[in-house]
C-alpha cells in the first residue's frame, strides 16, 4: 500500500522531498543529502531528524472488503469514523473485524466496551473463528471495561459465568482496564490515553467504541459530543490512531444530530429493493474527509472467519432511481 501511494505521488510530482516525502511544488532546495521542498526540511534532514514516509502511517487499508472496495487509497489514520446502522446490519461484527484485521497486520488495538463485559466482547471474535488469545498474551490488545461496574450485582455475575467464560476472563485479566465511573467521560478519555501509552500506540493500530448509544444512556448528549471531540483531538489527530465508533442510524431518531464532529460516516442499511421479499445488507461511505471514495452502495454478506464479504455494487449515485433516493443518506 505504501509503495502504491508513493508511486501515485511520483507520477504527479516527479520530485519528492527527502525529509517530509511530500511533492516538491517548485524549485528544490538541494544539498549533499538530496532535494528538499523547503529550507526547513533541508535543515531538519541535516540534523538527522528525517520523518517517516507519510504513506506508511497516514492511511490504513482496513482489510474490510466492502469498505476497501469503496476507499481504494485507504482511510486517513487521523479519522474519527461513525459506523451508523440499524439492527441486523452486522455492525457489531464489523467492529470486531476491524480489531481482528489490525491484529492480523501486527498492530495493537483498544476496544472501549460500553455494551458488553470483556468476556462477551472477546466472544464475538471467537465466534468468528478469530483467536485473540495470542494477542492478549503478547500484549497487543486492551479492553476498556465500561460495562461491569454498571451491573447491580457484579459478584453474582462473576460467580455464575461458565467454565469457558471464566477461563477467558482470567486470561484477559491483565488486558482489561476497569473503568469504575463509566459515566465520567473525562475518566474514560484518561483511561484510553493510558492504554495507548502502555501499547505504545502512535501511528499504528486503532480504537473501536461499542457504542455511543450506550454512552448516551449514561450521560447527556452534550457530554457525548465533548467526549468525541476530546478523543478525536488527543487520539486521532495527535497520534494518527483512527477511532471507529458504532451507533444506531444517525439522524432525527438516532445519535448524533451533530454529525460534523466526525471525520467519516459509514452507513449500513437493510433494503428489499434488490431481491423482493428478502432483506439485503448494504454499506456506503457518506463522508470521509481527506480521502476519495466511490458514491455507491456495496451489497455485502457475513461469513464466519471471512467476515464481511462484498458482493456486486449497486448503481452509481448519478444513475440512482427515486427509490434509491428515498433510502440514501443525506448528501455530503
Automatic annotation (TrEMBL):
Keyword vocabulary terms for this entry: ATP-binding, Nucleotide-binding
Pfam families xrefs: ATPase
Annotated TM spans: none
Highest taxon in the source lineage: Archaea
A GO term for molecular function: ATP binding
The KaiC-like domain, residue ranges: 62-307
InterPro entries, A to Z: KaiC-like_dom, P-loop_NTPase
Name this protein carries in UniProt: KaiC-like domain-containing protein
Amino acid at each position: 500500500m505504501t509503495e502504491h501511494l508513493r508511486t501515485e505521488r511520483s507520477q504527479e510530482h516527479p520530485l519528492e522531498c527527502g525529509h517530509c516525502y511530500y511533492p516538491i511544488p517548485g524549485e528544490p532546495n538541494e544539498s549533499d543529502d538530496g532535494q528538499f521542498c523547503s529550507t526547513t526540511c533541508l535543515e531538519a534532514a541535516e540534523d538527522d531528524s528525517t520523518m517517516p514516509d507519510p504513506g506508511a502511517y497516514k492511511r490504513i487499508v482496513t482489510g474490510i472488503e466492502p469498505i476497501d472496495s469503496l476507499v481504494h487509497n485507504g482511510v486517513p489514520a487521523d479519522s474519527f469514523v461513525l459506523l451508523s446502522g440499524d439492527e441486523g446490519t452486522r455492525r457489531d461484527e464489523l467492529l470486531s473485524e476491524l480489531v481482528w484485521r489490525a491484529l492480523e497486520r501486527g498492530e495493537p488495538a483498544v476496544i472501549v466496551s460500553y455494551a458488553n463485559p470483556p468476556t462477551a466482547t472477546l466472544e464475538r471474535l471467537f465466534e468468528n473463528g478469530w483467536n485473540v488469545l495470542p494477542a492478549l498474551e503478547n500484549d497487543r490488545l486492551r479492553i476498556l471495561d465500561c460495562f461491569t461496574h454498571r451491573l447491580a450485582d457484579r459478584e453474582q455475575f462473576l460467580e455464575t459465568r461458565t467454565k469457558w467464560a471464566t477461563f477467558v476472563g482470567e486470561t484477559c485479566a491483565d488486558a482489561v482496564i476497569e473503568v469504575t465511573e463509566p459515566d465520567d467521560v473525562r475518566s474514560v478519555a484518561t483511561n484510553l490515553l493510558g492504554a495507548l501509552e502502555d501499547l505504545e500506540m502512535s501511528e499504528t493500530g486503532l480504537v473501536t467504541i461499542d457504542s455511543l448509544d450506550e454512552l448516551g444512556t449514561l450521560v447527556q448528549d452534550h457530554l457525548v459530543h465533548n467526549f468525541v471531540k476530546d478523543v478525536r483531538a488527543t487520539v486521532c489527530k495527535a497520534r494518527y490512531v483512527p477511532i471507529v465508533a458504532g451507533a444506531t442510524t444517525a439522524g432525527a431518531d438516532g445519535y448524533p444530530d451533530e454529525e460534523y464532529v466526525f471525520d467519516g460516516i459509514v452507513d449500513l442499511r437493510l433494503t428489499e429493493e434488490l431481491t423482493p421479499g428478502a432483506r439485503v445488507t448494504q454499506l456506503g461511505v457518506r463522508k470521509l474527509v481527506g480521502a476519495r471514495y466511490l458514491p455507491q452502495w456495496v451489497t455485502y454478506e457475513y461469513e464466519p472467519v471471512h467476515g464481511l464479504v462484498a458482493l456486486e455494487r449497486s448503481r452509481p449515485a448519478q444513475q440512482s432511481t427515486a427509490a434509491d433516493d428515498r433510502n440514501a443518506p443525506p448528501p455530503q
